[in-house]
Amino acid sequence: MAEVIIVPDAAAAGALVADEIASLIAADPEVVLGLATGSTPLPVYEALRPRLEGVDVSRVRGFALDEYVGIDPQHPESYRNVIRREVVEPLGLTPERIHTPNGALETIEHAGDDYERAIAAAGGVELQILGIGTDGHIGFNEPGSSFASSTRVKTLTEQTKRDNARFFDSIDQVPTHCITQGLGTILHARHLVLLAFGEGKAQAVAGAVEGPVTASVPGSAIQLHPRVSVVVDEAAASRLRFADYYRYTWENKPAWQGL
Ligand code: F6R
Prior knowledge:
This protein is of the alpha/beta class.
């Protein structure tokens, strides 16, 4: 079962996860990180910045979860640009070492396989940061996605388009398709860290952590993984049946165990 850590707010979550990532980088300067976009991981990236000052991060490698298909590469909301702006530049990572699936139409037919090969060639992802959609998606694996899926093109649900319309001028500008790591790809990462904040995520979190394992709630795939940390604020934890047990477990966690 996932370890669920209920924190007071997003900043506390960011600090906790950033500590873990900073120690991974200290232990292995070439560590492969799995990066997410959207609002949720921003406190992690912010908290990482001071922790990495003076640290040589030039060899850190990274793979983003997803990209919009057919989006203008210059568009500020292409995930390649988001990752550059929110992660690569502020943390001083080496751009060539940080990858995003290629959403260009000309090469889309083999872009998924190319990405899988690149992740495998890097030796796989050590720690994968995940957010969760209100419909339960992780990456852009919308409800119904196969647990065995690899990086491929998916169609965004209306719900996801509505949720992401805030990054665009209107919902009509949100691309219809994306290319996303599959649930199978995500499950290969060695440590999954899923973050969620706010009441709007409470149902998706409860479904992912405690609901039946079902393709209808893609986030429930995390229940199949041996090492998962779910870091949530009180509002996102509000529908968890075993919340008291998670608090008790965290308070009594032996110091040597780490995240
Ligand atoms: C982003 C991603 C998505 C988001 C999810 C939540 O790379 O893969 O699964 O994590 O849509 O988005 P936010 O964090 O904006 O609520």
